[in-house]
Amino acid sequence: MGFKEGFLWGGATSANQSEGAYNDDGRGLANVDLSPTGESREGVLMGKIKMFDFDDNCYYPAKEAIDMYHRYKEDIALFAEMGFKVYRLSIAWSRIFPKGDENEPNEAGLQFYENIFKECHKYNIEPLVTITHFDVPMHLVEEYGSWRNRKLVTFYERLCTEIFNRYKGLVTYWITFNEINMVLEAPFLAAGLYIEEHENAQAVKYAASHHQLVASALATKIAHEVDPMNKIGCMLAANAPYPRTCDPKDIWKAKQVENQSYFFIDVQVRGEYPGYTLKELERKNIALPFVEGDQELLKQHTVDYVGFSYYSSSVVSADPEQTGTIGGNLFPSLPNPYLKASDWGWQIDPLGLRITMNDIYNRYQKPLFIVENGLGAADIPDSNGYIEDDYRISYLSEHIRAMRDAVDYDGIELLGYTVWGPIDIVSASTGEMKKRYGFIYVDRNDQGQGTFKRTKKKSFDWYRKVIATNGQDLDC
User: Which pLDDT tens digit goes with each residue over 16-27?
Assistant: First the structure.
């Protein structure tokens, strides 16, 4: 009983939340650089406020992030000390192709990631690489309108061809798009989409989604051709929508919310759009931008595994009078009276992870990979600079128990588990540093002040023990 031998324990970060060095060594500007802290952040993420360059009156935490660009050797050594078997990271598109539409890549960017992958292998850590973690070069946003334009499929294909060939033998596990369903929730953050006033926002988002799905299938095709050993995954932002009551209308509402996210994975795993999505778009008079060959491409080049993020569950209702939503990873939710919440209002629900695993596995019969799970909290160092984060250990241990139950009792095939933010990084939703996830504290605050010094928290040694016992010893 328990996790199989070779289970991939580790942690996950993204380039834009960790690297910094936004203009070093030829890197171009990207949409993810232009998310300021403060009142305008949500409007920018949602594609409602146009911010295509830096505003001197705003602070942009991704510019420097936690400076992993210059400190990755130190950080990977710390991951190795915990016993990581896998490290999930992402490639910044604009490091490889600074503008996005060049014919030739930026060698400095290619070399940077090659160095990281080799550093991982030095410690027998398997890299798990997200090709784009929301990144879009700003030149592609301004010149082509980002993913609403079919040309981005070609530019993405060029990126994939370059990295699959360059990193053959260094990387086996890939994810095509991070949380692909977030295009519908936060279009500028997830896909570089600013919605013009005259546009049909839904039509733009679904067109961009189709282009990303086609690009994902192309990436899968290229990866398997370059190296049959490559394992290509898709990724869903999962949040287990529960009906507020047993009223059938609430249950149906929860199913509709679930389907809005699952349709992406339906396409990537089954190779075709589900009927419920086609009918919904038909009712809205939205025509997907299919071109000749798309259907065959989607059908013939499906993914090898399903990755997903899970932090909390949500509650939905068909009753428009039910208001008072609480915070939660860009997904609105009514409060759940049976659950406690994090400092940021995310409802803590370990059983929801097991429910989600069952839902996804029973739907697709593909191996699963939990590539994000973690607790954002306001960690306060004591007088010695130490953080006794028992609350994080409690959150993670309960989720790992639920994950283990899904494997032991429900027969779910699970490849691995990467804790989100094994080192403190910039929050994607809020831009804060004080919303910390890591086993490693980074001396950096919300105003961009600090030394970047790395310090182990109590959870560091706890997670090392978890990995060493293959998930059997979860005690604090």
Answer: 999 999 999 999
In the three-class reduction of DSSP (H, G, I as helix; E, B as strand; rest coil), residue 418 is classed as strand
> Cα torsion for 326, 329, 330, 331, to the nearest 10°?
-60
Q: Among candidates 113, 232, 135, which has minimal Cα distance to 174?
A: 232
CA dihedral 88, 140, 35, 324 (to 10 degrees): -90
Integer-rounded Cα radius of gyration of the chain: 21
**Would you state the structure tokens that stand for residue 258, as one six-digit string?**
């679930």
- What does 184-231 look like in DSSP terms, one character per residue? GT-HHHHH-----TTS-HHHHHHHHHHHHHHHHHHHHHHHHHH-TT-E
Q: In the numeric block, which tokens belong to residue 54? A: 């830096």
Q: What is the DSSP string of 113-167?
A: HHHHHHHHHHTTPEEEEEEESS--BHHHHHHH-GGGSTHHHHHHHHHHHHHHHHT
Q: Which residues contact 124 (CB under 8 A, 6 or more apart)?
A: 85
Per-residue pLDDT, 344: 86
> Do residues 2 and 472 touch, judged by C-beta distance below 8 A?
yes
- Would you say 422 and 410 are in contact if contact means Cβ atoms under 8 Å apart? no
> Is residue 421 within 8 Å of residue 13, measured between CB atoms?
yes
C-alpha dihedral (3, 8, 11, 16), degrees to nearest 10: -140
Which residues are marked as active site?
372
Beta strands 8-12; 86-90: pairing state: parallel
Tens digits of per-residue pLDDT, 305-334? 999 999 999 999 998 888 766 665 567 789
- What's the topology of domain 8-468? TIM Barrel (3.20.20)
